[in-house]
From TrEMBL:
Disulfide bonds: 72-75, 442-445
Catalyzed chemical reaction(s): Catalyzes the rearrangement of -S-S- bonds in proteins
Protein name: protein disulfide-isomerase
One MF annotation (Gene Ontology) recorded for this entry: protein disulfide isomerase activity
Length: 549
């Protein structure tokens, strides 16, 4: 069930972010307890505040600091992983340390570093307090350790000769080597920037003429080497080592892919990162616990999924046509095989499928979670390519999920909408309809559930006002995309299919003012003060963000 929620978030394309609730600012010092510059630890993590922060920067060359709020659920979930990473890094060399700041108590530090959501992680290097680096890695122990390790040592290994290069290429399943005649050039610096950020790949760099010759290169080029795994009978994989010293085509699925540096345009870090992400993946991925992070971090706009039962030899044979269709869409469509009786079983409800529906082909547009089912019986590479191109050209309509409406859906104070009933209720020209789009597992939705029920009770006898809710994990709408939970939309009476997003306080009284004022909040008169307020620390704000797991 946990993985279903995680994967639903990924295929929904929800943005992860800081906790959205407002916290209460408390005093920086407890009464009678004056803080000193002593550095103390909790579970290997330095406990930082205004009085010891400067000392921590002086004593630790690399210091990753988490700014958190005690009430923040995301911070609470991160805490064990952050502590584990702190212990691993301290045991390795002691060069990199982790610290934490309670930003609700240490208001001066929160304001100094522009903390607006929780948790926020920033890296301080060589005691530099004015230009911390935003953390860009994964929010788990392994991701934090890798990210810090990459910054504690050179981001790319300098390869001096053919022997060290050959050893480097064969040392990992996937490595990236930048061949640059001038390691101080702008292209080389962009390469180093990518190497610092893409911590799940191993990077090398070469400038020696003999290496250019050995790898068949005459100009600056970035080469990706990978050990290719091909299909074999029974669903396993055959390991194919790359040919190390022979020049290969620029686009190859045989172990090496070259990205020549354009002399006019140079080398862009963002574009190189995208290309490496795309080409580091196998042409066809199998959805497993080990590959799920790769699949969702590739930022490929469409996913083509083949749902099959791996225990069926007939269904396994369908992978051949699936793979044959994949190369024409590389970078635009990611091809993924999902075993309906294995690791992929938990995601089937997200697609409205059961194991009995296999084999099935489904394309997902990641930007809006639209799903397109291939209905043809033929699974040939030609049929698959034709279907995908038709979807990309806008010639195929999405297949939308809809739950069945409860028998009493329209007699409750809060009407329960589903995909198939949404249009007739929300766009009823005689009603003003206020809808909550939610996910059952969302803690923010659960927190406001009582207020929404109370609102429904308050307006249940109003002929022209309807309070409703829709489970967005079980129902999809053609022209409305929900990108975070809860989302509140108001559909005013009258023609024109109008929709107003509600972005204000989530309490019954504010909801009521909004409804009574016809879908807007009345303007509050400006507060009049006889004297200017006394200056003081600003309270950090907390922008709304989609919940993450």
């Amino acid at each position: 069930l946990v993985w279903l929620l995680v994967l639903s978030l990924a295929w929904l394309g929800l943005a992860s972010g800081g906790e959205e609730e407002d916290g209460t600012v408390v005093a920086e010092e407890e009464e009678g307890n004056v803080l000193s510059d002593e550095l103390r630890e909790e579970d290997g993590v330095l406990v930082l505040h205004e009085h010891n922060f400067a000392r921590a920067l002086r004593e630790h060359r690399l210091l990753l600091v988490e700014f958190y709020a005690p009430w923040c659920g995301h911070c609470q979930r991160l805490a064990p992983a952050f502590a584990q990473a702190a212990t691993e890094l301290r045991n390795e060399s002691g060069l990199a340390r982790l610290g934490k700041v309670d930003a609700t108590a240490q208001v001066a530090l929160a304001n100094e570093f522009g903390i607006t959501s929780y948790p926020t992680l920033k890296l301080f290097r060589d005691g530099n307090r004015t230009h911390p680096l935003a953390y860009t890695g994964r929010m788990d122990a392994e991701g934090i350790v890798r990210w810090m390790q990459r910054r504690a040592s050179p981001s790319a290994t300098l390869l001096q000769d053919t022997d060290t290069a050959a050893t480097f290429v064969s040392s990992q399943d996937l490595v990236v080597i930048g061949f640059f005649k001038d390691l101080e050039s702008e292209a080389a610096q962009a390469f180093y920037e990518v190497a610092s950020e893409v911590v799940d790949m191993t990077f090398g760099v070469a400038k020696a003429a003999e290496l250019f010759q050995a790898y068949g290169l005459s100009a600056d080029t970035v080469c990706l080497f990978k050990k290719v795994r091909g299909w074999q009978e029974g669903g396993g994989a055959i390991l194919v080592l790359p040919s190390l010293h022979q020049p290969l085509p620029q686009q190859s699925d045989e172990g090496r892919t070259d990205f020549p540096v354009d002399p006019a345009r140079g080398l862009g870090a963002a574009e190189l990162t995208r290309l490496l992400r795309v080409h580091s993946l196998e042409l066809v991925m199998e959805f497993t616990n080990e590959t799920s992070d790769q699949i969702f971090s590739a930022q490929i706009p469409h996913h083509m999924l083949l749902f099959l039962n791996k225990s069926s030899s007939v269904q396994l044979a369908l992978r051949d046509g699936f793979r044959a269709a994949a190369s024409a869409f590389r970078g635009e469509v990611l091809f993924v095989v999902v075993d309906v009786t294995g690791y992929g079983a938990d995601v089937l409800p997200f697609f409205g499928l059961t194991p009995a529906d296999a084999p099935t082909l489904c394309l997902v547009k990641m930007e809006n979670n639209r799903k397109y089912r291939m209905d043809q019986d033929a699974f040939s590479d030609t049929a698959i390519r034709t279907f995908i191109q038709a979807v990309l050209d806008g010639k195929v309509k999405p297949r939308l999920l809809s739950a069945e409406p409860p028998e009493d859906w329209d007699t409750r104070p809060v009407k329960v909408l589903v995909g198939k009933t949404f249009e007739q209720v929300a766009f009823d020209e005689t009603k003003n309809v206020f809808v909550k789009f939610y996910a059952p597992w969302c803690s923010h939705c659960q927190a406001m559930a009582a207020a929404w029920e109370e609102l429904g009770e308050r307006y249940k006898d109003h002929e022209d006002i309807v309070i409703a809710e829709l489970d967005s994990t079980a129902n999809e709408l053609e022209n409305i995309t929900i990108s975070g939970f809860p989302t509140l939309h108001y559909f005013p009476a009258g023609p024109g299919r109008k929709m107003v997003e509600y972005k204000n306080a989530r309490d019954v009284e504010t909801f009521s003012k909004f409804l009574e004022n016809g879908g807007t909040l009345p303007e509050e008169p400006p507060a009049v003060s006889k004297a200017p307020p006394t200056p003081g620390p600003r309270t950090p704000t907390h922008p709304r963000a989609a919940p993450s797991l």
